[in-house]
From TrEMBL:
Gene Ontology molecular functions: ATP binding; metal ion binding; phosphoribosylamine-glycine ligase activity
HAMAP family associated with the record: GARS
EC number: 6.3.4.13
Protein name per its UniProtKB record: Phosphoribosylamine--glycine ligase
NCBIfam families in UniProt: purD (TIGR00877)
Family annotation (InterPro entries): ATP-grasp, ATP_grasp_subdomain_1, PreATP-grasp_dom_sf, PRibGlycinamid_synth_ATP-grasp, PRibGlycinamide_synth, PRibGlycinamide_synth_C-dom, PRibGlycinamide_synth_C_sf, PRibGlycinamide_synth_CS
Length: 423
């Protein structure tokens, strides 16, 4: 098979790594890719939102399967364009990707189908949002309705902060058109857990659990980012929690989307909060999480291509999804200053140390070639992932491996997976 991956981050590198292991695959392309993905794939400088060029490229290369990794092209309808051209594609179409594309839609869906989530209200008028805040309990959460690179969520501890947040999202348009509508929801407390799942329109098979660290600084301080690290599995995701979620959240979401005439095929990412009142949905994503994919996919025993094809063909119920009985931790190496401003083009050394290191992975997020030299080209540069027999060993291995790689202004959190010690 010839496989084409759309995207350029650590998630797409993890997908390329998994696809390369498949006996069914003998050629991988990636648009636009990065310096790490180039180890497995032929990368071409076509952007993820250049739909016409992607379709033409896929037809020219006689691609058998396209995997769309990123949220923007999914929400924008790339899958529809590819399918109209007769190209098999793994990922939700535009009608289904609204599950991530509009937080207002997903909150209304959960309310309608009694899927547990935080109490909320939707607003398109900033004045009405401000009036609502006067009666609301603090702290409170403000969410830009649309896609905002994982950064369009503000947690406000005081009424003054919340009012400023409304201005930031709806008036200053810090997140662009994503802030045309806004969700204001109650602040939930508890452990956060991420559960990724494969979906074929009717059936759902969940992957092993994970937990992300969104804040830029140690101790969950600083600005929200795309993710500074993650671990899998979560010790807080118990058998009892899983049984509840399978019944009241996972299958319920798939059934709700089908009932709405928006059958979902691809990946649903469930962001959960384990509250005192039971598990509740924080958010949905319509693709692999990043960096969750970097700890989940290396632990998956199944052939990713076979599972993706089962999702497309509606035969997922015949798949026995299995994961290794171990653990993995990913620590993101970022450029100092991320997520605000940071330098690019800095040479990276030490990458060759991962070549023969079994159970250690270096997933490229923001890298490119400058001649033969690999240099930084983004805020999140690399995801250093390591396995271990348990979470503590995996964490120690991952942090040890962060020392193998060097570049100027290298920055990371030092407490990824620290919650493991409290479990």
């Amino acid at each position: 098979m010839k496989v084409l991956i759309v995207g350029s981050g650590g998630r797409e590198h993890a997908i390329a790594y998994s696809a390369a292991k498949s006996d069914k695959v003998d050629k991988i392309y990636c648009l636009p890719g990065n310096a790490g993905i180039a180890e497995y794939a032929q990368c071409e400088p076509i952007g993820a939102m250049e739909f016409e060029k992607i379709v033409v490229f896929a037809k020219e290369k006689e691609v058998d399967l396209v995997i769309v990794g990123m949220d923007d092209p999914l929400v924008g309808g790339l899958v529809d364009c590819l399918e109209e051209a007769g190209i098999r594609t793994f990922g939700p179409n535009k009608a289904a990707a609204i599950l991530e594309g509009s937080k207002a839609f997903s909150k209304d869906l959960m309310k309608k189908y009694h899927i547990p989530t935080a109490a909320y209200e939707n607003f398109t008028d900033p004045e009405k949002a401000l009036a609502y805040l006067e009666t609301a309990k603090m702290p409170i959460v403000l969410k830009a309705d649309g896609l905002a690179l994982g950064k369009g969520v503000l947690i406000c501890n005081t009424l003054e902060e919340a009012k400023e947040g409304v201005k930031t999202i709806m008036e200053d348009k810090k997140f662009g058109d994503a802030g045309n509508e806004m969700v204001i929801e109650e602040f939930m407390t508890g452990r956060e857990v991420s559960v990724l799942s494969f979906v074929d329109g009717k059936a759902i098979k969940t992957m092993t659990s994970a937990q992300d660290h969104k804040r830029a600084g140690d101790g969950d301080t600083g600005l929200n980012t795309g993710g500074m690290g993650t671990f899998s599995p979560s010790p807080f995701y118990t058998k009892e929690v899983d049984e509840f979620c399978q019944k009241h959240i996972y299958q319920a979401t798939v059934d709700a989307m089908r009932a709405e005439g928006r059958p979902f095929k691809g990946i649903i990412f469930f962001g959960l909060m384990l509250t005192e009142d039971g598990p509740k949905v924080l958010e949905y994503n319509a693709r692999f999480g990043d960096p969750e994919a970097q700890v989940v996919l290396p632990r998956m025993k199944n052939d990713l291509i076979e599972v993706a094809e089962a999702c497309i063909d509606g035969t997922l119920d015949q798949v026995d999804l299995q994961f290794e009985d171990n653990a993995a931790v990913c620590v993101v190496l970022a450029s100092e200053g991320y997520p605000v401003s940071y330098q690019k083009g800095l040479p990276i050394s030490g990458l060759e140390k991962f070549k023969d290191a079994d159970g250690y992975y270096c997933f490229h997020a923001g890298t490119k070639f400058d001649g033969d030299q690999i240099v930084t080209s983004g805020g999140r540069v690399l995801g250093i992932t390591a396995k271990g027999k348990d979470l503590k060993e995996a964490r120690a291995n991952a942090y040890a491996a962060t020392e193998w790689v060097q570049f100027d202004n290298k920055y990371m959190r030092h407490d990824i997976g620290k919650a493991i010690d409290e479990a």
